[in-house]
Design brief:
CATH architecture of the largest domain: 3-Layer(aba) Sandwich
Strand content: 25-35%
CATH topology of the largest domain: Rossmann fold
CATH superfamily of the largest domain: von Willebrand factor, type A domain
Largest sheet: 6 strands, mixed
Protein name: DUF58 domain-containing protein
Structural class: alpha/beta
Oligomer: single chain
Helix content: 25-40%
Keywords: Membrane, Transmembrane, Transmembrane helix
Radius of gyration: 33 Å
Number of helices: 12
InterPro entries: DUF58
Length: 448
């Protein structure tokens, strides 16, 4: 009895057309008081309405599973990117039906508009496509797929509940990694904003001896090989390989600032994943260190194929902390872990010149043993405010303060350069491209 109640009553909904027909019957009964010639027409109309109701129930419930629905997603979602979701609907009835599909997306999205309406002919299959953009890493749980089916009579709708419960992890952005991989080896780097850097001199890593062709540098002619071969032969050099590239991510409170739905920490994590991919493509070793008031995760530099997955699994769990980063502990860990000179890309943020000055001694000590690149962020809201015209005295005050903070950011860049520390001051949306640009430039200039 309980199963019958759940299958037929809970999932049965009367539609507007039935109530309209019932209302018409009520009107006929009222008119009968004034127009006796209506006779039994109201009763007959009421009986017809209920007969149609039961016919509609019969044709929708005579098949146990008249509709199939299934959700297709990737095994994991990419943070900050548009992730495609597909729902496939199949009609098993012998007639066309109207379908309303409601997909219960994870609560983190706070979306109530994933409501789709379509018509299906007999045995027809249709797909629904939409995108979801997560802005936080973690686990996202999908709920039921609910399909409301109406026959051509349109008196009732039958609800089908398809168990689409699925928990998907949201990882750092990985959808666009293929584009960065392509750009790293392509001659068309400027299509994605990645610039080609002219090399200065030759790399010191020997690759092969090859025949001389027009345009080769005559300074690379190998005279011994030329004498043996009887034709001009030149030495071919390649970029230095197996360099240590460590991304250091600050997890302190300064990285909690939101931009475009993502925190600065999320932008730094996405840029780290992209830089790791490009560095491994260049046959360098990529590693990771996270820091807050204490040392967080450490992934020693390596270039094995599983390294990117290891770094993503670590970054998947990272969250911001509320205390200031301990750069003294970072210096000790770097000295203990990174034995050879390499490139340290430090993702952090400084909101004032005094904040930088507190950390500057530790940054100088790091730059003494490694090539240090400090990456911090522009405050885009302040930049917008400084460019907007002031309408009153209060507006002038706000604009002046905004320009002061923007000027301090420029002073930070100068202060770092003064002490021989490389820096990038960038907006969050341009972070990944700017970091990859600088890495490729340093590789081309043989500074790593």
């Amino acid at each position: 009895m309980k199963k019958f109640f759940q299958q037929y009553y809970i999932n049965l909904f009367l539609k507007d057309r039935f109530f309209a027909a019932l209302g018409f019957c009520v009107v006929l009964f009222l008119l009968k008081f004034f127009f006796t010639w209506l006779g039994d027409i109201p009763e007959i109309a009421t009986v017809v309405v209920f007969i149609l109701l039961f016919v509609d129930i019969f044709i929708l419930y005579r098949i146990p599973k008249g509709i199939d629905a299934q959700r297709f997603t990737s095994k994991r979602l990419s943070n900050g990117d548009e992730n495609p979701i597909q729902i496939e609907i199949k009609n098993r009835y012998g007639f066309g039906v109207n379908v309303r599909v409601i997909d219960e997306v994870p609560y983190q999205f706070q979306l109530r508009d994933k409501d789709f309406r379509l018509s299906l002919k007999s045995a027809e299959v249709k797909s629904i496509h939409y995108n979801l953009r997560p802005t936080k890493r973690g686990e996202y749980e999908f709920g039921f797929i609910r399909a409301y089916i109406g026959s051509p009579l349109g008196f009732i709708s039958r609800r089908y509940n398809f168990d689409g419960a699925k928990v998907l992890p949201v990882y750092p952005s990985f959808i666009n990694l293929g584009q960065y991989e392509l750009m790293a080896v392509s001659r068309h780097l400027t299509e994605m904003g990645i610039k080609r850097i002219r090399k200065i001199g030759n790399s010191s890593e020997f690759d092969q001896i090859k025949n001389y062709v027009g345009g080769d540098d005559i300074r690379t002619i190998n005279w011994k090989a030329t004498a043996r071969k009887g034709g001009l032969m030149v030495n071919n050099y390649t970029d230095e390989k197996s360099q240590n590239i460590y991304c250091i991510i600050d997890k302190s409170r300064v990285m909690r600032m939101p931009f475009g739905g993502l925190s600065l920490l999320d932008y730094a994590i996405n840029a780290t994943v992209a830089l790791t991919k490009v560095a491994m493509l260049k046959e360098d070793k990529a590693g990771l260190i996270t820091i807050s008031e204490t040392i967080g995760s450490i992934v020693p530099a390596d270039r094995k194929s599983a390294q990117l997955g290891n770094i993503m699994n670590v970054l998947y769990k990272e969250k911001t902390r509320y205390l200031e980063s301990n750069l003294e502990a970072l210096y000790s860990s770097v000295r203990a872990v990174v034995k050879q000179r390499g490139l340290l890309v430090f993702f952090t943020n400084f909101e004032s010149l005094s904040a930088l000055e507190r950390q500057l001694p530790y940054l100088q000590r790091l730059s003494k043993y490694h090539l240090l690149l400090v990456v911090f962020f522009e405050n885009t809201e302040l930049k917008t405010l400084s460019h907007a015209p002031a309408k009153d005295i209060e507006g002038i005050y706000h604009k002046t303060i905004a320009e002061k903070f923007i000027y301090e950011k420029k002073l930070m860049v100068k202060a770092l350069n003064k002490h021989g520390i490389l820096s990038i001051l960038t907006s969050p949306q341009n972070l990944t491209l700017n970091v990859i640009n600088r890495y490729l430039a340093l590789k081309a200039q043989q500074r790593i």
